[in-house]
Design brief:
The chain is mostly helical and 205 residues long. 84% of the residues lie in helices and 0% in strands. The chain is built from nine helices and no strands. Helix 3 (35-64) crosses helix 6 (120-136) and helix 4 (67-90) runs antiparallel to helix 9 (175-203). The protein starts with a helix and ends with a helix.
């Protein structure tokens, strides 16, 4: 169980490195409206992640019930992870513009929830992750729960740190720094994907 928890922490840290609209929305919210607003925004993002994970787990778990497609789930999950990694390695930083967010508490949560839900890379990340997790832990609810407990706790804790240090982080994030961070994330995902593929091929008779 501890191993699943630690794996979740690692994936949560990787997700926290993603630089995109959700990331800049958190910084802008924290800078303009304070730490509490950033906290509410992060709650919205976490709730959105929870919905995406439930959807992805349902798809992966249902397919995994059929032995003939179990291999395909593992393979597609690993390939998806590699694909997202390559996207981050070779894509250019597209925007660092802050988002316009209203001052009501409810709007912070809604903006975080909606923006995260509509970001394609987040959806594909969770689809790949859930496929990998379902295959790795053979659909064990306890192990999968421990994995996502570690993942959620890590993401939320780092989001709170981002919110607290928003002004300093924004000052450091020029275009070059953002591109380097994206490449680092891409390399981590590609390595994880290839490691998963390696385990899949080793497990074949």
């Amino acid at each position: 169980m501890l191993e699943a928890l630690l794996h979740g922490v690692g994936f949560g840290f990787t997700l926290s490195l993603m630089v995109g609209p959700v990331f800049f929305g958190l910084l802008q919210t924290s800078i303009n409206y304070g730490f509490k607003a950033g906290f509410l925004y992060a709650l919205g993002v976490t709730a959105s992640d929870f919905v995406l994970i439930l959807l992805s787990l349902t798809i992966a778990s249902t397919l995994y019930l059929y032995p003939t497609v179990a291999y395909s789930i593992k393979l597609l999950g690993s390939i998806a992870m590699c694909g997202i990694g390559l996207y981050y390695i070779f894509s250019k930083s597209n925007s660092s513009a802050p988002l316009t967010i209203e001052k009501s508490k409810k709007s912070f949560i809604i903006k975080g929830f909606g923006l995260n839900l509509l970001t394609p890379t987040v959806l594909f990340f969770w689809l790949g992750t859930c496929s990998f997790v379902t295959a790795s832990y053979v659909a064990s609810p306890i192990l999968i729960g421990n994995f996502f407990l570690g993942c959620f706790a890590t993401v939320f804790a780092i989001d709170m740190l981002k919110s607290f240090l928003a002004l300093r982080i924004k000052a450091m994030l020029n275009v070059k720094a953002i591109q380097q961070l994206q490449r680092l994330l891409g390399i981590i995902l590609v390595v994880a994907g290839f490691f998963s593929l390696w385990k899949i091929f080793l497990s074949q008779p």
